[in-house]
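Case study B.
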Amino acid sequence: MADSIYALGTPIGRSAVAVIRVSGSGFSKGFIKFLNIPIDKKGSWLRSLDLGDFSDQCLVLNFPGSSSYTGEHVVEIHCHGNPLIVSRLLAVLSEFGLREAEKGEFTRRAFVNNKMSLSDAESVMTGIQAGSVQELAALEDFRSGLLGKKLSDLAEKITEALATIESQLDFSDEEDVGDLSVDKSKKMVGSLSASVESLLKNYQPYSAESKKKTVVLFGEPNVGKSSLFNALLGEGVAIVSPTPGTTRDVVRKRMFVDGIDVELEDTAGLRSQTSSDIEDMGIEMAKSAVEGADLVVYVFDSPEKVSNKTDGMVVLNKTDSHKSKVKGVYCVSAKTGEGIEDLSHAIGKAVRDDFDSDLVSERIYRGLSGVVALLKNSGVASDYYEQTSQNLRDSLVLLEEINGTFDNEDVLDQIFNKFCIGK
Amino acid sequence: MTYIFDLVVIGGGHAGVEATLVGKRFGLNVALITLDKDKSGRMSCNPAIGGIGKTHLAKEIDALGGYMAEATDLAGIQFKTLNKKKGPAVQATRAQTDKEIYEKTIQKKLIKEGITVIEDEIKDFLFEKGQVLSAVGAKEEYKAKAYVLTTGTFLNGSILIGDNKQEGGRIDEDKSAGLEKFFTNLNITTGRLKTGTPPRLSSKTINYDKLEIQPGDEKETYMSYLGQKNQHPKQVSCHITKTNPTTHKIIKNNIKRSAMYSGLISGVGPRYCPSIEDKITRFSGKESHQIFVEPEGLNTDWVYPNGISTSLPKDTQEEYIRSIAGFEQAKIHQYGYAVEYDYIDPRNLDKTLLLKNTKNLFLAGQINGTTGYEEAGAQGIVAGINAALLIKHEDPWIPQRQTSYLGVLVDDLTRFGVSEPYRMFTSRAEHRLILRQDNADQRMFETATKYNIISEERKEIFLEKESQKKKIKKTLDTTKIKIGDKTKTATDLCKRNDYSEKDVGKIVKLSGQKFLETYYDIRYSGYVVKQQRELEKMKNLEEFELGLIFDYKEVVGLSGELQEKLNKTQPKNLHEASLLEGITPAALNVLTIHLKKIDAIRAN
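Model:
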């Protein structure tokens, strides 16, 4: 019997509603009592769930039996999206003997229970792990078969080239099969390799780390970087104080800006006269953070100090106190929230990849890279077409592993259709 | 009267002869039963052995001690190396043979080896619980421990010329009757195939001045690894002529009278060997087709015009032949005809060519849907070896795709069946680069010595070659060359694309066949590693047993077609499943994961 697992289905952080999913085959009595719903009945109920010191008005959705996502008994609890409520609710579930799901466990269970095929499961997993909107779009590309279409077009082209090469090997004694010049074969293989390369260029492998964008807040002490940091995140992470030099470490926090995974970094303010060695170290760390950043946001607190930077974004903070605006500069107040939303969108826009590339899984990328390597090594004059043919075959096998099938007969079919073979 | 043997081979064609001879090399008491002794080893189609892919088979038969290549060396009147400008893996020795010398050489060999050759027609098998107890002939009954059946085109064969249809497997010869009932009773699926021959002409009536001459190779080449100097009979040239628009017009005007187009023929013909009617219809844009004018022998005026096989009526054949340059006065010795015959779907066989549901009946040759002497001989030797192993209570021998064309042939036939007469092409071999015509001796040596089916002479020739190649390899290993600031060995250079075999040869001052073989052994050594890996992977796959999957409909992610196929075949393990047509690496993945699922459920 599968044990009961739970997972937060919505992102961590403040939101209107948070969804917690539970899956298992047979729940504990305590949990059933806690939910206070007819446990065998499919439906939704509004319940005030007792979370100890307080309770929360939750929507409870019940999917008993096999038609659920995982094929097990699934319960969804929609509570208010306050991190405090969510964490308390999760703690309560643990007390009832449920455990937190491993990464992808819901999907794995769905697969094990025949609720989805392996490739579906794979694409859901990628979907869950997707780090950006672009990646989800690419995934859709793969699901909808757009990439599949491109790959099978490619396989078709390679098969065609293979048929041409094979006709030179198996049917060179046939009148109808003319000699293929090395130049022509080189050109043919070259154009194949170019089209795979362009595919590769447009389909980058998904790698969480490389897709995360680092945005660094930088500026003199006490311009309100930490306040801005907190305002952008919508929560209190960095310690804010009126004393300059409070932030000595680099404080990092992950946030999503318009679907892009962004790591926002708050740094120590720069000043020549520091109060301690620790602050010096903080400043050094700030400098290196700037070097590694995808985007530097320069923060100022008065219009007079604003200087234009070409290598980043300029923000004038504290509009609530100096009440002035500077053209071409993002004017915000971390305190009142004025302009924060615009700034957030602007950051998202600035870090978004400028090239129009889609993303695929590592597996597909590796396969395609292998094809490029094989093709680059083909069409050489000294191999008498033998190795070129082998490489084209091996390319098709690689493509087959990604998508579709390949058959020796396809090659022969093409030859017999193209040439009049037979003495 | 009832005769008793170890092995009975039925049919004296190219498959039957190799099966008989290898049975003898195993030390068995073998009988060959044939309709006509004097027609054993007959070349009923064109008088030639070898061709791209086919030579590879002939060489493997030879390396296992078979006789086809030796007979070719004794009967070959023109030798040519095909694909000379291509790499060594696809080069092939082709021999034009004297048809009469060839069959006489074979018949002499059978006598020399003390084979009991009996003229009779097998009508039925006495059969009990899968065991064939005896072969029932028109004259006598023959008991044996195992049987190899090679009926060629004689199973329900019919000969077609125009609207004339008569029973028979070869012109002027009866078909074998009665056996089709045996297969029907066994519930074996059969199909119908077609093949054709051109009209045979008299060389005395051909104007050779109008033909292009095509001489053989200047350098003497051999089909067999035992080939010796001055072994070949007198060497002659072939000739080339071609059809023209007039020829095509004559054929087009009469096409409805061709047995192929009048609906008389239901069998499927080979795409790589189309009739002239087919060529003209399918490639109507072509104004002419080449014809190779091949002599059938030194002491005969029969000529085989290769490229114009037909089933047109006789008068049309006369007319179109005479429209061809050089054939204006040609006399037709024998009209072209199509042969239609039954074949057994080779998916009814296991990889030893044993007929499933039987314990001791092997099938080889054209009966399995193949075409060609070499393909037939290859199956003959595989069936013969396995029949002998069965008789000796030893494990069967299954040639592998990774190491031989025999393996490719047997595997293709038994896994995929055929949709047209099956001919070998090098493109069918995934491991083509290392399956060369010059290294079949090396590839077959282990098997040949294990079963002790090759002569001492053959062993010595091979071992001598190997020791010479070893010396060459040592020279290549120890010759150092400075390229830029790096020192490389000549062996390193063999693998590089910017050094040809000639460049390396110059550096080490070596040339010749054995140097070339060594060079290519090194050059393609990466593929040997790959092949090894594949064999290992195959063994790994064998460890995943599928016995716990009772219904493949439960396996999510498999196509309905595959689910059905797997349910029908019930493979024992993943390796067997991987051999099924349509099974992709992705499908294997799905199966592996399903097995893990089963494990997980069982563990819980």
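Chain A has 15 helices and 14 strands. The remaining cases will be described in the next quarterly update.
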